[in-house]
Design a protein that fits this description.
Elements (H helix, E strand, L loop, with lengths): L11 H7 L10 H13 L9 H17 L3 H4 L3 H21 L2 H19 L2 E3 L8 E3 L5 H14 L3 H10 L11 H19 L3 H20 L4 H14 L3 H13 L8 H10 L3 H15 L4 H20 L1
Antiparallel strand pairs: 1-2
Helix pairs in contact: 2-5, 2-6, 5-6, 7-8, 8-9, 9-10, 9-11, 10-11, 11-12, 11-13, 12-13, 13-14, 13-15, 14-15
Length: about 325
């Protein structure tokens, strides 16, 4: 057990700390767990009428601990655990009232041990590109701010999306270094694209500059280098910088990364530089990787257009 609720679909600690202030005075698993452990250890189990309660709590918690330790899975057990927590409180108050010092000392020692066991910070070593982390405090609050940013991004509210993404920098224990600037770069790149499509190139410049800067920051932190290079290449292609776009795309390709969704930007950048043979190479690679339908058809159309433009000069 651990007092930190490992987040799954909702981060309870984040919501409690940042948004639902009415929850602040309420007890948490950090208090219920040690009291419940002491209550479970008391000879309360000798009563046959509560055997079913012991079985229900024990089997449920054992299943959660063995297979999937997440906050939302252990919450259903909390009402039952509170029964045992209430028993522990009753026994402590009874020992105080009767001035039974040995019993009070034993209960106090049990609560201390249980508190240490349930409230220690569980630390995980680095794995699969995720840095080492100790689960506690504001661990992974950054991901929750980015979820809020995504909500505003889906609504097309770019300023709010960036504002909430920037709040992720408040987190002292982020999931991954570079994730926040990469996210902000993606938001600003999308805004740049929409402004360019709308013919507002002057308005797009500061957003392009922010996106480029944050992509470079993410790359400097070693965050997903190949996808970041691909996204940076797309950004350059959007604003009409084919040489920079090709350099970024080729850096991603060297890392054996090719995103079918951005391949058309890749091809058009080559066309702008007059390198039609490279378009054929990319189209062939996309066909081998993703099949002949979809993006490959667009790439072949771009290749045909490029060849047609070069045909008069080769005669």
């Amino acid at each position: 057990a651990n007092a930190f609720e490992i987040p799954d679909n909702y981060h309870y600690a984040f919501m409690r700390a940042k948004f639902v202030s009415l929850l602040w005075p309420l007890v948490t698993f950090a208090l219920v767990a040690p009291l419940a452990l002491v209550g479970l250890a008391l000879p309360f189990w000798r009563r046959r009428d509560v055997t079913a309660l012991y079985i229900a709590v024990g089997v449920y918690l054992a299943t959660v601990l063995v297979f999937y330790v997440r906050g939302r899975y252990r919450i259903p057990a909390v009402p039952f655990l509170m029964v045992f927590a209430a028993l522990a409180i009753d026994r402590v108050l009874g020992a105080i009232a009767a001035r039974r010092r040995p019993a009070l000392a034993a209960l106090g020692a049990g609560l201390v041990v249980a508190g240490v066991v349930t409230n220690h910070e569980r630390c995980e070593a680095a794995h699969d590109g995720i840095p080492a982390v100790c689960l506690g405090g504001d661990s992974w609050f950054d991901s929750e701010w980015l979820k809020l940013s995504q909500w505003y991004l889906d609504k097309g509210q770019f300023d709010q999306a960036v504002r909430y993404a920037e709040r992720a920098y408040e987190c002292t224990r982020p999931r991954r270094a570079g994730m926040i600037p990469a996210w902000i770069a993606g938001v600003e790149a999308r805004r740049t694209q929409e402004l360019v499509r709308g013919g507002q190139r002057d308005a797009a410049r500061p957003h392009f500059a922010r996106a480029e800067k944050d992509y470079r920051t993410a790359l400097g932190l070693g965050f997903e280098p190949a996808p970041m290079q691909s996204e940076l290449g797309t950004l350059y292609a959007i604003v009409g910088k084919p040489a920079e776009a090709v350099a970024a795309f080729e850096a991603a390709e060297k890392a054996d990364y090719l995103d079918a969704a951005t391949a058309a930007h890749f091809a058009r950048a080559y066309v702008a530089l007059g390198r039609c043979a490279e378009v054929d190479r990319i189209a062939t690679k996309v066909e081998r990787t993703f099949g002949a339908d979809g993006p490959s058809k667009e790439l072949r159309a771009i290749q045909t257009t490029c060849a047609a433009r070069q045909a008069p000069t080769s005669r």
